């Protein structure tokens, strides 16, 4: 197993930081060879607010993953979320100089680059430009224009925008932790890669990833991403409410939520009581499970209603935009008891819990295939894809060089097509290096 094929994802969350190492096996499934997890300190609602603590947490997670796998982490693909992420729809076109030649990748790249020149609000930067459908010479609803003839190529784009400073801070932390930066991906997209099937994306589905600090939403229809949003609430606000409502410390509130919490108060009998040891020399506290569920229910309902508002925003009620596959819940917060029932009750949509086992090798540890690690698995998949593309480019360059040598002419070295996101990463890298 050579180093080239080792793919690493780094999920920098509000509650935990996960470094995951994976390798593609011969069946094109991911084998997770190492996983490191550390308590996330210095991240609030998906945004870094303490650089030193975040660096330490990243190092702790990376070292644990290295110790388990016996491999060295060199490059990682990092996930980004946070309340500063927003998305917008935009359409753009290019006029091709030679309509007698077929449309190729360079044309699509040119069109995408044009979108990257959009003027954003001060301090914002475009993270992803995702083409939805194309039009060639006015012919609409084309999914793949490569190979077609046409003079005017236009497309609708889903553009994801984030704050430059937040992205730079994350890159700074990764770099300072002694790890090479391999790319950045929007976390809802990574989670979607890990838990959704192609059929669901075709039929129409909303993925809700409930993390510690944020709840991420990604909506797919006809196999294309249609809407993304990050809602600045997650599992932590539920814990916070339990802490306040029951006058207990955070650690106990978290344990209560995980062990006894339910999103449906009707489930609990009035006489079910949990006793919690008091602080130093104080009497133990008694809490009824019904009260606990009421507190959880109120906050979860608020989160789901905000997400549902976003789903309506996308236009779920229109016939053409209907999400037939309903909702998939993932992330640590999706493990809350009876959450599925509550979501179905509020939205009236079919719901299931998403496990990232679709792309994992059969013998993967149960704990790794938990919704908790959906984003991390998606990031590893993304890293593996990036590596494949990189290897393909290298072999292409080598074969072209060899051909040039055998034919006796040294051709110009092939210019490597750099994707826009890689160029963005490069720009940030140089910025960081000059800043140091």
Low-pLDDT regions? 409-417
State the name of the first-level CATH class of the domain at 235-294. Answer: Alpha Beta
| SS element count, helices | 11
Separation of the first and last Cα atoms: 36 Å
Q: What strand line-up does the widest sheet have?
A: 3-2-1-6-11
Give the tags.
38% helix, 436 residues, alpha+beta, globular, five-stranded mixed sheet, Nucleotidyltransferase, domain 5, 11 helices
List the topology elements:
Layout: E1 7-12, E2 16-24, E3 30-39, E4 43-44, E5 47-48, H1 51-69, E6 75-80, E7 86-95, H2 105-116, E8 124-136, E9 139-142, E10 152-163, H3 164-176, E11 180-186, H4 187-195, H5 198-203, E12 205-210, E13 215-221, E14 224-231, H6 235-246, H7 250-260, E15 273-276, E16 285-288, H8 289-314, E17 327-330, H9 339-347, E18 351-353, H10 374-406, H11 420-435
Parallel strand pairs: 1-6, 6-11, 12-17, 17-18
Antiparallel strand pairs: 1-2, 2-3, 4-5, 7-10, 8-9, 8-10, 12-13, 13-14, 15-16
Helix pairs in contact: 1-3, 4-10, 6-7, 6-8, 8-9
Could you characterize the architecture of this molecule?
The structure is a single chain. The chain is of the alpha+beta class. It has a domain at 235-294: ATPase, nucleotide binding domain (Nucleotidyltransferase, domain 5, 2-Layer Sandwich). The chain is built from 11 helices and 18 strands. The chain has helices spanning 51-69, 105-116, 164-176, 187-195, 198-203, 235-246, 250-260, 289-314, 339-347, 374-406, 420-435; strands at residues 7-12, 16-24, 30-39, 43-44, 47-48, 75-80, 86-95, 124-136, 139-142, 152-163, 180-186, 205-210, 215-221, 224-231, 273-276, 285-288, 327-330, 351-353. The strands form 5 sheets. It has a 5-stranded mixed beta sheet. It has a 5-stranded mixed beta sheet with strand order 14-13-12-17-18, with helices on both faces. The protein has a 4-stranded antiparallel beta sheet with strand order 7-10-8-9. α1 (51-69) packs across α3. The chain is globular, with a radius of gyration of 24 Å.
């Amino acid at each position: 197993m050579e180093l080239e094929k080792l793919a690493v994802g780094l999920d920098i969350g509000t509650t935990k930081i996960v470094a995951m190492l994976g390798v593609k096996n011969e069946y094109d499934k991911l084998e997770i060879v190492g996983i490191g997890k550390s308590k996330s300190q210095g991240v609030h609602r998906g945004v870094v607010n303490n650089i030193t603590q975040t660096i330490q947490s990243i190092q702790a997670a990376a070292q644990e993953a290295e110790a388990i796998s016996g491999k060295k982490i060199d490059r990682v693909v990092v996930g980004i979320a946070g309340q500063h992420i927003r998305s917008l729809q935009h359409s753009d076109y290019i006029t091709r100089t030679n309509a007698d030649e077929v449309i190729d990748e360079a044309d699509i790249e040119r069109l995408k680059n044009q979108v990257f020149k959009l003027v954003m609000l001060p301090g914002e930067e475009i993270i992803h430009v995702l083409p939805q459908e194309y039009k060639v010479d006015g012919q609409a609803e084309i999914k793949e224009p490569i190979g077609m003839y046409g003079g005017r190529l236009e497309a609708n784009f889903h553009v994801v925008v984030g704050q430059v400073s937040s992205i730079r801070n994350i890159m700074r932390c990764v770099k300072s932790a002694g790890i090479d930066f391999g790319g950045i991906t929007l976390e809802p997209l990574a989670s979607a890669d890990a838990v959704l099937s192609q059929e669901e994306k075709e039929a129409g589905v909303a993925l809700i990833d409930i993390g510690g600090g944020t709840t991420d939403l990604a909506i797919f229809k006809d196999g294309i991403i249609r809407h993304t949003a990050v809602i600045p609430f997650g599992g932590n606000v539920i814990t916070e409410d339990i802490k306040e409502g029951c006058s207990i410390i955070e650690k106990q509130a978290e344990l209560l939520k995980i062990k006894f919490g339910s999103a449906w108060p009707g489930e609990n009998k009035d006489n079910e009581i949990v006793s919690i040891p008091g602080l130093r020399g104080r009497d133990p506290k008694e809490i009824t499970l019904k009260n606990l569920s009421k507190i959880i229910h109120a906050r979860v309902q608020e989160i789901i209603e905000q997400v549902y508002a976003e789903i309506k925003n996308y236009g779920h009620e229109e016939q053409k935009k209907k999400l037939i596959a309903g909702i998939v819940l993932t992330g640590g917060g999706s493990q809350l008891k009876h959450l599925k029932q509550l979501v179905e009750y509020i939205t009236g949509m079919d719901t299931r819990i998403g496990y990232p086992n679709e792309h994992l090798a059969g013998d993967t540890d149960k704990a790794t295939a938990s919704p908790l690690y959906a984003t991390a698995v998606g990031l590893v998949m993304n890293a593996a894809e990036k590596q494949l593309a990189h290897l393909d480019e290298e072999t292409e360059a080598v074969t072209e060089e060899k051909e040039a040598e055998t034919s006796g002419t040294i051709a110009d070295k092939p210019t490597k097509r750099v994707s826009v996101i890689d160029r963005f990463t490069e720009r940030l890298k140089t910025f960081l290096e000059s800043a140091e």
